[in-house]
Amino acid sequence: MASSAAAACLTVPGLAGATISPPSTASLQVAGETLTSTPSRISTDLIGGTVQCTLLVDGDPRQNILSPRQPAPADFTLTRQLAAGEHLALTYCADFPLGSDTPSSYPTLACAKVTVPAATVESLPNDQCFLTNS
């Protein structure tokens, strides 16, 4: 989905077969220079499991925004200021077994090319949700 409106939004359903389970979704929105990821109803099939989500911009770990870890299901809001230009933004969520600090899975729930200040969000399939070295 592409939009040139002042605010754009993308929602992608959770991936089937991952331990992060439906009804997990994530939405990416941009307004002005602010990118917001809203993972919602992040669920796991792990009994007593916790979940945590990350907003990653341009593949740069220094630009990660990490949510607190919460019991599933959980809702999160992750926000980051962006410089003008095109950016690759993705949201992935991890689930953790009860008492563990090692994630069981961490599927990508939303991936998009985001343009600031045009406020556009263009959905990308997960197989294009990576950065090249070019």
Number of helices: 0
The outline comes out as elongated
Whole-angstrom Rg: 14 Å
Oligomer: single chain
On the 0 to 100 scale, the average pLDDT is 84
Low-confidence stretches: 1-18
Distance between the ends: 25 Å
Order of helices and strands: EEEEEEEEEEEE
Strand content range: over 45%
Category from helices, strands and their pairing: mainly beta
- The biggest beta sheet, please? 6 strands, antiparallel
Helix content: under 10%
In total, the number of strands is: 12
How would you sum up this structure in a few lines?
The protein has strands at residues 7-13, 20-21, 25-31, 34-40, 43-44, 50-57, 65-66, 70-71, 78-81, 85-96, 108-116, 120-123. It is mostly beta strands and 134 residues long.
Describe it.
Residues 1-18 have low confidence and may be disordered. The two termini are 25 Å apart. It is built from no helices and twelve strands. Strands 6, 7, 8, 10, 11 and 12 form a six-stranded antiparallel beta sheet that branches. A hairpin with a 7-residue loop joins strand 6 (50-57) and strand 7. By secondary structure, it is mostly beta strands. The protein is elongated.
